[in-house]
Amino acid sequence: MSDALINGLAGAGGGIIAQLITYPLQTVNTRQQTERDLKKEKRKHGTIKQMCQVVKHEGWGRLYGGLAPSLAGTAASQGVYYYFYQIFRNKAEAASLERMKIGIGDGSVGMFSSLVVAALSGCLNVLLTNPIWVVVTRMQTHSKISKKSHPGQTLSVTPDETIPAASELPPYGTSHAIQEVFDEAGVRGFWKGVFPTLIMVSNPSMQFMLYETMLKRLKKRRALSKKGNNGVTALEIFLLGALAKLGATVVTYPLLVVKSRLQAKQVFTGDKRHHYKGTLDAILKMIRYEGFNGFYKGMSTKIVQSVLAAAVLFMVKEELVRGVRLLLSKDAINAVKSKPP
Fold first, then answer.
1. Domain membership of residue 304 as a residue range
2. Residue range 226-240, pLDDT digits in tens
3. Which residue spans traverse the membrane (predicted)?
4. Is residue 41 part of a domain?
5. What is the mean pLDDT of residues 82-100?
6. CA-to-CA distance for 23 and 156, rounded, in angstroms?
7. 341, part of any domain
8. Roughly what angle, to the nearest 10 degrees, separates helices 111-141 and 234-263?
9. Count of structural domains, the chain
């Protein structure tokens, strides 16, 4: 089994576990990002309170709306990312060693090369998996439909509204979200928000650059210590992953808000604040009607969710890679021992 495949499968496994743990926070955060009701903004609650409101008015299931396609998307996304990341990383390491032979550099992959490797992997990941995340965003932001509303009009639930019981609500699953996106914009609709998402490749790029840099320095420091042990514990991987994700999220969060706005259901009403024609239109309208604060809606929730998810992902992924390599090495040793002399 190739090293790229091992990392790809381990990344998919780590991503699924992280998603299961943090998904309710992700659902609430997506709703915070796409909220454009100014009256509701004045009555906004904290993350825990909002989760309780969703459970109270829409049931526990709505906190996990879109979980199935999200898990599929996470597995595909992390698998694709880590697979190509390892391939590009191997090429970068080989190029660094070749340069060292002619007296250039020390043979290690530099920060800029790490950034390029992560960016290339991220772009391929975005282009291949964006349709899945459009569907997930629709399912996360779908809320109850009032009997008084027009057919097909999705309303945000506030404490003052009268809403039907959960048993009276029409079903809304993956197939409904796919059909809704297709009816609005055809096949092109599944790539809504792809432009800011491609720009947001800088988020995982920064994350992995920071992670690799901190990990490299930690291993180097361990190797220079008296014990000469450069091993890293699962807890240390967890903390490094959290720190790397925190730095990347703070810088790129506004792009995440714009992406969510574009991928959420467009409200075709007389209020032009609720309809975006594209990335630039969304940015200009958010600045005009909401100010720069609009780009940081739900940021505290996102920091908690993304940092926790990234830390779990890194820790689980590294442990899976270590475990698989150990099993493969044992199998290889056993195979050699079992060969007749």
1. 3-330
2. 666 667 787 888 888
3. 109-128, 232-256
4. yes
5. 87
6. 20
7. no
8. 50
9. 1
